[in-house]
């Protein structure tokens, strides 16, 4: 079974600085999707960024980018120019891309604090 | 579009009581699922469905039942609530088919406390 590990339960960053959240995963599959979700204090789950395993180019969404290392099974999230609104729980998630497979496997999360 | 809606937002039960958490979506999504979120544990899949009449178990199904009689609704039933079921419950939905990286849309969650 696949597992997702986020080794940093909590992190903090100064406003306007850059922070990187780590995620590693374990799977025997070669084609899959990886996601980062943000959960602010409102509890709403918000998709931040997604990556297809067969795409070598790292995904980017505005100030959010990933460093996807398939051989190392690593999928880190970089937040540039951190803003107060970035303070939240961040979850890394994996989904196998096989037919009929839609279940997400989540890591335990990283709580990000942004210091003014 | 209301998206994914969940009711109630908060609920307190006594041990042994039963209740149903409601989930509905208006996006005509085939896939629906239930997760529970516990501190330090992330989100764990309870049950899921790929269409009306089709359900299957996830990682932590014990103590929960589901059914899917319509595309829109996917209720989660607690038959005899236990303190271990104190958690925040999320319902999510997504279309199936292409593109395969379809985003899952989450409801706002239900915070359940079992005394």
Number of strands of chain B: 11
Helices and strands of chain B, in N-to-C order? Answer: EEEEEEEEEEE
The share of residues in extended strands of chain B comes to: over 45%
Greatest interface (CB-CB under 8 A), with counts per chain: A-B, 22 and 25 residues
Portion of residues in helices of chain A? under 10%
Instruction: Give the overall silhouette of chain B.
Output: globular
Structural class of chain B: mainly beta
Number of helices of chain A: 0
Q: Could you tell me the mean pLDDT of chain B?
A: 94
> Can you count the helices of chain B?
0
Number of strands of chain A: 12
Give the key terms:
heterodimer, A: 116 residues, mainly beta, six-stranded mixed beta sheet, four-stranded antiparallel beta sheet, B: 115 residues, seven-stranded mixed beta sheet, 11 strands
Can you walk me through this structure?
The complex is a heterodimer of chains A (116) and B (115). Chain A is mostly beta strands and 116 residues long. Chain A has strands at 3-5, 10-14, 19-21, 24-26, 32-39, 46-52, 60-61, 64-69, 74-79, 88-96, 105-106, 110-115. In chain A, a hairpin with an 8-residue loop joins strand 10 (88-96) and strand 11 (105-106). The model of chain A has no long low-confidence stretch (mean pLDDT 94). Chain B is an all-beta fold. Chain B is built from no helices and 11 strands. In chain B, the strands form 2 sheets. In chain B, strands 2, 4, 5, 6, 9, 10 and 11 form a 7-stranded mixed sheet that branches. Chains A and B meet through strand 6 and strand 11 of A and strand 4, strand 5 and strand 9 of B.
